[in-house]
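hey
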């Protein structure tokens, strides 16, 4: 019997693709040979210290600058093409309020610049500012202004939303409101990439976390995966004047930190570490807890610093 025709399923082009992309400013390699793909519909957090390369990576992604080497693509093509087509919305750190313009007028104007914009009432509703339609933009609070900037980013009805430190300088309530709005947008199946200094935001609102340090991606995974990669547990106990010289030699221990009269050990094997401490008689005030995302971030970026310095010395 003759077989029927074979049905092929084309590979879906990722929303974002970096291929060995690099960008330097003088001697500083702000983005250093990054390889990265972000699938359509993912929400991804970009996490790193100041100067780690997050903003430069976003500038490359938006076509605001060109890579010195390598390529950056959005939806399989040049970033500027996707931006012009309204497929990308961006909320950057540098922005000023437009004087003497109402919220409704601003969003209507921005939406009119795109070929297939989001209906203005929908953008206002998603950003949580429908009640501010008639208010002047330059007379809003900081949190309200941030949500207006979010509505501006939504106005083109983008497939990809890029948020550079979107909750910087916002109070707790304003941050909570903003993330509610962002999640409502993401539920439409759109792709979101946001940079942040807040580790709890990265874990709470992203499917995936990218840790950036010195222009490189040093870790890529969920919060739990990052914790496991950095060492699974933290063991702490009272020193009571004992020497710390031999603590880093205990089984499983990856690092030691002293805070006051307490030792904090980061360990891959907390059971083995605790047994060894018991044999030393060092169990007063003993506490064992899973590593936090802060622990993972510090461990990953410290490791990256050490690796970079070693390579530079060769």
């Amino acid at each position: 019997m003759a077989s029927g025709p074979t049905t092929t399923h084309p590979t879906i082009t990722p929303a974002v693709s970096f291929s060995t992309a690099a960008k330097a400013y003088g001697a500083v390699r702000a983005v250093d040979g990054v390889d990265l793909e972000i699938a359509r519909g993912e929400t991804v957090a970009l996490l790193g210290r100041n100067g780690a390369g997050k903003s430069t990576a976003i500038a490359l992604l938006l076509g605001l600058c060109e890579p010195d080497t390598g390529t950056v693509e959005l939806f399989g093509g040049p970033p500027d093409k996707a931006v012009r087509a309204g497929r990308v919305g961006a909320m950057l750190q540098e922005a000023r309020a437009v004087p003497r313009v109402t919220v409704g007028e601003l969003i209507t104007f921005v939406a009119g610049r795109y070929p297939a914009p989001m209906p203005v009432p929908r953008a206002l509703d998603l950003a949580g500012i429908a009640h501010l339609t008639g208010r002047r933009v330059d007379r809003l609070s900081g949190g309200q202004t941030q949500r207006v900037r979010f509505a501006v980013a939504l106005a083109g009805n983008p497939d990809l939303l890029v948020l550079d430190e979107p909750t910087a300088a916002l109070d707790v309530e304003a941050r909570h409101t903003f993330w509610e709005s962002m999640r409502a947008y993401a539920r439409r199946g759109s792709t979101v990439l946001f940079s942040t200094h807040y580790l709890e935001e990265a874990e709470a609102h992203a499917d995936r976390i990218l840790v950036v340090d010195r222009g490189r991606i040093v870790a890529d995974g969920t919060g739990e995966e990052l914790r496991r990669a950095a060492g699974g547990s933290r063991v702490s106990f009272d020193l009571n004047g004992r020497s710390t010289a031999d603590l880093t030699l205990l089984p499983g221990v990856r690092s030691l930190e002293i805070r006051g009269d307490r030792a904090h050990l980061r360990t891959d094997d907390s059971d083995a570490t605790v047994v060894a401490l018991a044999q030393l008689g060092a169990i007063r005030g003993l506490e064992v807890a899973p590593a936090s995302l802060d622990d993972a971030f510090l461990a990953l970026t410290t490791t990256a610093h050490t690796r970079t310095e070693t390579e530079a010395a060769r």
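The first helix runs from residue 54 to 61. The two ends are 65 Å apart (CA to CA).
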